[in-house]
Design goal:
By secondary structure, the chain is mainly α. The protein contains four helices and no strands. The protein has a domain of about 60 residues. Helix content is about 50%, strand content about 0%. Helix 2 runs antiparallel to helix 3 and helix 3 runs antiparallel to helix 4.
Length: about 120
C-alpha cells in the first residue's frame, strides 16, 4: 500500500487496520462523539432528545468496550459505564442510589449538579 492510500499509518498499526476492516470508526472518534453526546444529554431540556442521546451513548459505550483499537483498561471503563447509562435511559427509579441525591427535585437531572443561582 502506498503512503497516501493508508493515510500515513505504519504497518505496525494492526489494531487500527483491524477496526477499519470491521467498519468501525477509530476509538478516538467514538470517544469524542460519546463525550459530545453526554454533554448534550446533560444540557437538553426535551425528554425525547435526552432519550435518543442516551440510546446513542449506550451504543457508543458498547462499541468502545469491544473496540480492537482501544487499550484493555479503556475497554473496561466503557464496559462499566454501559449499564449505568442503560439505567439512565430507563429512568430515575433505575438509577443507582449513590448517584441520585435525595434532595434533588428534578428527576431528569439526578446525575448532574444543579446550576448555581449566582456566580461569585
Amino acid at each position: 500500500m502506498s503512503q497516501s492510500s493508508d493515510h500515513g499509518r505504519s504497518d505496525g498499526d494492526s489494531d487500527v487496520a483491524a477496526a477499519d476492516a470491521q467498519g468501525l470508526p477509530p476509538a478516538e472518534a467514538l470517544l469524542a462523539g460519546t463525550l459530545a453526546l453526554m454533554t448534550g444529554h446533560a444540557q437538553a431540556c426535551c425528554e425525547g432528545q435526552r432519550a435518543l442521546m442516551a440510546k446513542k451513548i449506550i451504543s457508543h459505550l458498547f462499541m468502545l468496550s469491544r473496540h480492537p483499537g482501544a487499550p484493555p483498561n479503556f475497554k473496561a471503563i466503557a464496559a462499566n459505564l454501559h449499564p449505568l447509562w442503560v439505567r439512565v435511559l430507563q429512568g430515575p427509579e433505575q438509577a443507582p442510589q449513590a448517584l441520585s441525591p435525595a434532595d434533588n427535585s428534578d428527576p431528569h437531572r439526578v446525575l448532574w449538579h444543579t446550576t448555581p443561582e449566582t456566580l461569585q
